[in-house]
Design a protein that fits this description.
Blueprint lengths: L1 H11 L10 H17 L11 E4 L7 H15 L5 E5 L5 H7 L4 E4 L4 H14 L1
Parallel strand pairs: 1-2, 2-3
Helix pairs in contact: 2-3
Length: 125
C-alpha cells in the first residue's frame, strides 16, 4: 500500500525511481549502483539521490538494510540520504532505525510531508 502511494507521489512529481520488495533487494540495488559508478571511475556519483526505506520489510528489514548501506558507503566515501518510513512514531523499533537514517516519515505516507522532507534534505546537501 505505501509503495503504491510512494509511486504515485514520485510519478506525479516527475521523479525517476526504482522499487524493491524487501531490504535485501534494496541493498543489492545500492551495492550494484555504487560498484557501477566506481567501475566508471566516478565513485563520487551516487546511484540514488535519496532512499525511501521502510523499516518493516520481509527477508531483511529496513533497519538492517540501512545499517549495511551505511557500512558500504564508508568503503566508497559517499553518503546517500535515507528517509525512514515507519508505522512507529517512537519506541525501540524506531530508535534502532534512527541510527542510520537522515530523516523519518510516519505511515501512512503523506505527499506534502514526504516532498517537504526531500526538499529539506536537498537544502542541507
Amino acid at each position: 500500500m505505501q509503495q503504491m502511494i510512494a509511486k504515485r507521489i514520485f510519478l506525479k512529481n516527475g521523479m525517476i525511481f526504482d522499487t524493491c520488495t524487501n531490504g535485501k533487494e534494496a541493498l543489492t540495488f545500492v551495492s550494484n549502483g555504487l560498484t557501477d559508478q566506481k567501475d566508471l571511475g566516478a565513485s563520487h556519483i551516487l546511484p540514488y539521490d535519496y532512499i525511501l526505506m521502510d523499516c518493516q520489510t520481509p527477508v531483511m528489514d529496513g533497519c538492517e538494510a540501512t545499517r549495511q548501506i551505511r557500512q558500504m558507503e564508508k568503503e566508497y566515501g559517499v553518503h546517500i540520504p535515507i528517509i525512514g518510513l515507519s508505522a512507529h512514531g517512537e519506541g525501540e523499533e524506531l530508535n534502532k532505525f534512527v541510527k542510520g537514517i537522515d530523516s523519518h516519515v510516519s505511515k501512512p505516507l503523506n505527499e506534502h510531508k514526504l516532498l517537504k522532507m526531500i526538499e529539506d534534505l536537498h537544502s542541507r546537501n
